[in-house]
Amino acid sequence: MGLWIKRLFVGLLMLVTALAVGGLAYNQFAPIFGGKPDAYSQQKIAASAHYQDALFVNLIPTEVSTRSDTSLSLWDSLKSFMWPSADKNPTKPLPTVQLNNQPFVDGSFVWLGHSTVLFSLDGQTLLTDPVFYRASPVPVGGAPFAQTNPTAISDLPDIDAVLISHDHYDHLDYQAIQELAPRVKQFMVPLGIKAHLQRWGIPDSKIQEFDWFEDANVGSVKITFTPSRHFSGRGLFDRFKTLWGSWVVQAHAGSVYFSGDGGYSPSFAEIGAQFGPFDMAFLEDGAYNQDWSQIHMYPEESVQAAIDLNARILLPIHWGKFDLALHDWTDPIERITAEGFKRGVQVTTPKIGQVFQPESAPSEPWWR
User: What's the predicted TM-score (pTM) here?
Assistant: First the structure.
């Protein structure tokens, strides 16, 4: 081997080593990756029936990846990244409505893209999975699609409770949590996620941590944390270390179900039987393929979940804001509206930022 080849090899080895060490250090010390549970939280985690061998588990056997031919899966992903279809992402800014240009009264709902929904029941204002910036821990990828009239955090009203479903980056936004903190009374989070918020400067007094089927009241509104079929993790070594789930919101004025993320499972029918019927269900619709068939639903399964829940109106979420899968960006909404029509399920399709009431839930195909 020539001297220059040896030097090149050594140089590449040093570069790879430096990148690996730097990546590990970043993962260990950057606050965006979250924190470690304190003694009180760890005690509650250890006591959970859903925590086994230092990991949280689903109610039924679940694989994060369901495709056996990994090489083919990687090749499909690479092809999609290198040669995306013409409709993989929007070709122009999405037609959106700015929240602060509309009245937001009790009984109102507004989808703010992906899994972020702001709504008010019985005088209590609630916000689900607030993600306003990147769905990524690094400034590469994960940026939201362009919008004509984006809603900023400064446009939001004061919030009585923020409901977090799990700690993936497209559901738990480090920057958004910090900016929201002064105007939020309570953050309601799954077991283990309190540590992330603590590291980000949220005081303990503003964080409530939940196991499945634990509940609390916000004014006259009862909020219960319920199961989903998914997983968690923000770093290289913390998969399944925090809990994930869905939320049931019951008020005098109506009841709501928020799915978070998750594959189809018997839990929808069980939750529907125990807590339903629901006036509205915010159900995952997007970021699916055969690799993730047990941890993300296909649109047709989301319609079946709405039926299982006995939900009067289905609001599709987890689509329309980020490019997180291999399918075209409108595939989720086209499929779920078609299946809803076929199955007799009312699917509402508001623009991002459009305030509405259930009795006049919009159905305009604005994405076309």
Answer: 0.91
